[in-house]
Amino acid sequence: MIELHRITQRFAGPKGPIEALHDVNLTIGAGEIFGVIGRSGAGKSTLIRTLNLLTRPTDGRVVVAGRDLTALTPDALRAARRDIGMIFQHFNLLSSRTVFGNVALPLELAGMRRAEIEATVLPLLELVGLSAQKDRYPTQISGGQKQRVGIARALANRPRVLLSDEATSALDPETTRSILDLLKRINHELKLTIVLITHQMEVIKAVCDRVAVLDAGRILEVGPVREVFLQPQHEVTRSLLGETIAHELPPALKARLRVQMHDNHAGEKYHHLLRLAFASGVDQPVLSETMRHYAMIDFNILHGRIDEVQGQPFGSLAVLASGAPVKVAEAMAFLRQRGVLVEELLDLE
Ligand SMILES: Nc1ncnc2c1ncn2[C@@H]1O[C@H](COP(=O)(O)OP(=O)(O)OP(=O)(O)O)[C@@H](O)[C@H]1O
After folding, report:
1. Which 3 state secondary structure label does DSSP give 342?
2. Which CATH number among 3.40.50.300, 3.30.1330.100, 3.90.70.10, 3.40.50.1950 corresponds to the domain 2-241?
3. Which residue intervals define the domain ABC transporter in the entry (predicted)?
4. 287 by DSSP, 3-state: which?
């Protein structure tokens, strides 16, 4: 549905050119909810604004629904943009217009007649749960309701793609959840492709099918959310995952372990700090099975939690395995055979 080919974006900065995006290639399938995550300044806003050519790239091509937007005339681009709705962090509503009036605006601009506008807007307000608020003004509704107006307005032209630029960043956690639920529902019911940018892994975890990690204008990794969460390939991803899932040990525990690992062996036993991630659900008694098989190894569970990623349990444990290195290596292989992702943490800095 969306293809980015070799997108580079340079801006003039005070100390010379800034490369906000560097050679970005990306393909987003029809009906996907695709997330782009990155730290502040990574290039996320630039990337999402490139998708509807609000920002024209210095180099590269943007193809949406088979049309190369970068090659269109201004008129054709205006028409093509009707296929792409957008919602924003600060909602961008007109305060002088009612809820109905805000949603109706793109249709009025397109020259639609009043009766047709009503027939389009009222079901949209129903869809986003704002029928009762249709005559209110933006100052008379909550932040979550404002974003619902933004969503209804973005859907007015019946787009095939919805772009979400940090749409939940200004909202509290509960409202964020309700907006994400709504996005999920319209993705499903309207078969809409959604691309969202965010700096919050929680948002990615809650709704996205796939995710791209952007840093300093480059895509570091792309993959299904579960895969990226289970096996982040880059330090930046790990740090963005942070507390969302238990890739990082709590600092106090790290400090204690550093002392303990310093004097690493007692007799034949060595301490091995392992991170175990359960990819295939946490309902298998894999750990007790391993403990029975490898009774010579002491397993000390240091830290763990169970999260849910896309409705599936996701378990992560930090375990100190103390035993002969060859036996611990065998136990690690045993766990891997049973679908557990095992990683030895060597660096406690
Ligand atoms: N119009 C512009 N002119 C000059 N520099 C720009 C422009 N837009 C973005 N930049 C620069 O490009 C880089 C990427 O910015 P961008 O806003 O895309 O990042 P971001 O990941 O969305 O960050 P944030 O989460 O803080 O909004 C930054 O260094 C920014 O200063």
Report:
1. strand
2. 3.40.50.300
3. 2-241
4. helix
